[in-house]
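Would you mind writing out a protein's amino acid sequence and the numbers that encode its backbone to help me picture the idea?
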Amino acid sequence: MQSVVKSPERYIRKASYKDKGPMLKETRELLTSFYQPFNEKMAELTGDSQFLYMDTS
């Protein structure tokens, strides 16, 4: 575990990627719909409702 903690960061997003702006609403809806059953199963398995990602907007 210490090797993981002490290892250098990898796959850091470049500034140019961050400048692309917010995710399209349609993209967010598509991803939310796709992952919903998996998130529900994870919430059930762990007993943690944070995996349900309720829309707060």
Observations:
- Helices lie at 2-6, 15-18, 25-46.
